[in-house]
Amino acid sequence: MAYEPKRHFNNRIYALYRGEEYLTDGTQKELAQYLGVKRKTIQFYMTPSWLKRTSENALRVIALDDELLNQ
Predict the structure, then answer these.
(1) SS3 (DSSP) at 63
(2) How far apart, in whole angstroms, are the C-alpha atoms of residue 67 and residue 6?
(3) Measured between alpha carbons, how far is 5 from 58 in angstroms, rounded to an integer?
(4) Listed residue (40, 30, 35) closest to 18, CA to CA
(5) Which ranges in the chain belong to alpha helices (H)?
(6) What are phi and psi of 59, to 5 degrees?
(7) CA 67: distance to chain centroid?
(8) Residue 16 contacts residue 60 (beta carbons within 8 Å)
(9) Separation of alpha carbons 58 and 29, rounded Å
(10) Are strands 59-63 and 21-26 parallel, antiparallel or unpaired?
(11) Are 52 and 60 in contact (CB under 8 A)?
């Protein structure tokens, strides 16, 4: 079994949705550039506070599972 280092949170891949519509995926930095916002804003989009404040059609950022990416 080969050693595989853990992904640092900056290198994790996230999917960006508006409601049910898939927009793109990438790192937090890439998603921030795509939307024209700061990386901290992308992080906020993943919080329970954001989910409670917004409707189902708002932006959603979902962390993709590392196991799914390695298939």
Answers:
(1) strand
(2) 12
(3) 34
(4) 35
(5) 28-35, 39-44, 48-53, 66-69
(6) -65, 140
(7) 16
(8) yes
(9) 20
(10) unpaired
(11) no
9-55 confidence digits (pLDDT tens): 568 999 999 999 999 999 999 999 999 999 999 999 999 999 999 99
Q: What is the pTM of this model?
A: 0.77
Nearest residue to 18 (alpha-carbon basis) of 3, 1, 31: 31
Give me the count of residues in the chain: 71
Is residue 22 within a helix (H) or strand (E), and if so which, with residue range? Answer: strand 21-26
Specify the residue for token string 């930095």.
29
pLDDT at residue 17 in the model: 96
Tokens in use for 41? Answer: 């804003």
Given a contact cutoff of 8 angstroms between Cβ atoms, the answer to whether 62 and 14 are in contact is yes
State both tokens at 18.
């508006």
Q: 24 near 16, Cβ under 8 Å?
A: yes
